[in-house]
């Protein structure tokens, strides 16, 4: 644990990785924290206060989070030098301590690293992008009954279009590919086509679906839906569905019932079991609008997951309160899903909801569910009381505008007052 420019806190311990990729959490885990650029520092300060309050309320000092400031984005360039957007120190710290949290980061324009977020996912093999979407009472939403949507989306984070190989129309490579497809496979492709290849593997699909089913079992959910476009893309999307069912049957037989087996149970899911079904992606968009309360855990490939996550977030009032986590085995990085909103940097104005809810995902990942519950309740009641940051206040008639730090204070008061 030698770092170039970091000193790890002495008053905490590292989370340990078990041989199966799960983690063992000490009472005082050290959590690397990238506060992020733009509004990141304001949001991180608020998030830390809220999380510390909930942990103190539940454990009274017997357990605590020991925050460890590490750097990425503009703060990294300032500390480590030009073009060092993601220093080795930060990667090493996350590897050493396993679970980290990050605020939004500026995406460098031109040169060097393409996206810090993508780099982190690849280096740490964070293969599931996990997005819970639920409604908070009082937030303006475009549908009549936004509270009916309460889903968690497991989106594959390493292949499909993230590993897509593309050839630009008109290039020699594209022409070669078109000729190869014709000569070798007798497949006609228009000569003026761009070409894209989308790889989907057994291993990549199975580990993603495995994580979604494990979550459903642990959290006593009743349904995991595999979403795919397998009616058209049989060997990628369709295979994802087939491999998903295979994982369910081969690894979770005692816990799951497939939709095709429901008849054997009189059409009803037996108590304590998780139903595994699948839906075609386009029909899933309809379903989530028309019958949102029929879905719980969704496992899907990269592109479908990207569309679905944002569509679901919009349905309950936008991305402002949508958290995210990138989870692998054993590493996990939770993150706010919005950007750095540079216009509001250092103004103590922006909404810390997304980062706070990302920290809630971190608490759940640590197994500190009671702390997570308290934070969600505190946030929910603060929004219900209509004491909100500018972005929500301007859409909520009769609301009182509060600063980032005041918003955190309101949540903390509710946490402290909780029974
Ligand atoms: P953005 O999310 O920063 O801003 C979009 C709009 O939402 C703006 O009007 C902004 O003021 C508002 N907004 C965002 N977060 C808010 C919050 N917490 N509270 C209140 N209002 C909020 O997106 P952008 O303008 O496209 O990007 C700005 C920078 O952020 C770019 O450098 C981009 O690359 C980066 N970015 C980073 C991430 C990430 O780190 N995960 C995600 C998206 C964008």
Q: How would you summarize the topology of this molecule?
A:
Elements: E1 16-17, E2 23-24, E3 30-34, H1 40-59, E4 66-70, H2 74-80, H3 88-97, E5 99-102, H4 116-123, E6 128-134, E7 150-156, E8 165-167, H5 172-185, E9 195-197, H6 202-218, E10 223-228, H7 234-252, E11 256-258, E12 274-280, H8 281-290, E13 297-300, H9 302-315, E14 323-327, E15 332-336, H10 353-366, H11 369-384, E16 387-388, H12 390-393, E17 400-401, H13 404-417
Parallel strand pairs: 3-4, 3-5, 5-15, 7-13, 10-12, 10-13, 11-12, 16-17
Antiparallel strand pairs: 1-2, 6-7, 6-14, 8-9, 14-15
Helix pairs in contact: 1-10, 1-11, 1-13, 6-7, 8-9, 10-11, 11-13
The protein binds nicotinamide-adenine-dinucleotide.
The fraction of residues in strands falls at: 15-25%
Small molecules held by this entry: nicotinamide-adenine-dinucleotide
Name the strands of the widest sheet in spatial order. 4-3-5-15-14-6-7-13-10-12-11
**E-strand count:** 17
Cα gyration radius (Å): 22 Å
Q: Helical percent range?
A: 25-40%
First and last CA, distance: 41 Å
What does it look like?
The chain is α/β, with parallel strands linked by helices and 419 residues long. It has helices at residues 40-59, 74-80, 88-97, 116-123, 172-185, 202-218, 234-252, 281-290, 302-315, 353-366, 369-384, 390-393, 404-417, and strands at 16-17, 23-24, 30-34, 66-70, 99-102, 128-134, 150-156, 165-167, 195-197, 223-228, 256-258, 274-280, 297-300, 323-327, 332-336, 387-388, 400-401. Strand 16 (387-388), helix 12 and strand 17 form a beta-alpha-beta unit. Helix 1 packs across helix 11 (369-384). Nicotinamide-adenine-dinucleotide binds next to loops. The site of nicotinamide-adenine-dinucleotide has 18 residues, from loops.
């Amino acid at each position: 644990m030698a770092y170039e420019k970091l000193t790890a806190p002495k008053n905490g311990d590292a989370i340990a990785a078990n041989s199966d990729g799960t983690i063992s959490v000490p009472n005082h885990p050290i959590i690397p924290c990238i506060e992020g650029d733009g509004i990141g520092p304001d949001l991180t300060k608020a998030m830390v206060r809220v999380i510390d309050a909930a942990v103190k309320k539940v454990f009274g000092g017997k357990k605590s989070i020991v925050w460890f400031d590490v750097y990425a984005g503009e703060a990294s360039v300032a500390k480590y030098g030009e073009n060092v957007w993601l220093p080795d120190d930060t990667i090493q710290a996350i590897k050493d301590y396993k679970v980290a949290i990050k605020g939004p980061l500026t995406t460098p324009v031109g040169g060097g690293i393409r996206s810090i977020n993508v780099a982190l996912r690849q280096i740490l093999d964070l293969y599931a992008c996990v997005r819970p979407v639920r409604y908070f009472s009082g937030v303006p939403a475009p549908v009549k009954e936004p509270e009916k949507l309460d889903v968690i989306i497991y989106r594959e984070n390493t292949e499909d279009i993230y590993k897509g190989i593309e050839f630009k129309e008109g290039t020699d490579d594209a022409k070669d590919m078109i000729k190869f497809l014709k000569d070798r496979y007798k497949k006609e492709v228009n000569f003026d086509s761009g070409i894209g290849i989308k790889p989907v593997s057994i291993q990549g699909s199975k580990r993603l679906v495995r994580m979604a089913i494990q979550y459903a079992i642990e959290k006593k959910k009743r349904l995991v839906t595999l979403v795919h476009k397998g009616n058209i893309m049989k060997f990628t999307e369709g295979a994802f569905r087939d491999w998903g069912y295979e994982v369910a049957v081969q690894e979770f037989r005692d816990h799951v019932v497939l939709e095709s087996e429901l008849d054997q149970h009189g059409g009803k899911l037996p108590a304590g079991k998780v139903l595994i079904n699948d839906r075609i992606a386009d029909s899933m968009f309809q379903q989530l609008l028309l019958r949102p309360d029929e879905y719980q855990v969704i496992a899907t490939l990269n592109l479908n997951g990207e569309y679905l996550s944002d569509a679901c977030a919009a349905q309950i009032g936008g991305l402002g309160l949508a958290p995210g986590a990138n989870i692998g085995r054993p590493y996990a990085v939770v993150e706010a899903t919005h950007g750095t909103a540079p216009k509001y940097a250092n103004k103590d104005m922006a909404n810390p909801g997304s980062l706070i809810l990302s920290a809630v995902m971190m608490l759940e990942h640590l197994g500190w569910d009671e702390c997570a519950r308290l934070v969600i309740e505190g946030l929910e009641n603060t929004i219900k009381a209509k004491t909100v940051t500018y972005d929500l206040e301007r859409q909520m008639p009769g609301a009182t505008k509060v600063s980032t730090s005041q918003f955190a204070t309101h949540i903390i008061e509710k946490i402290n007052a909780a029974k």
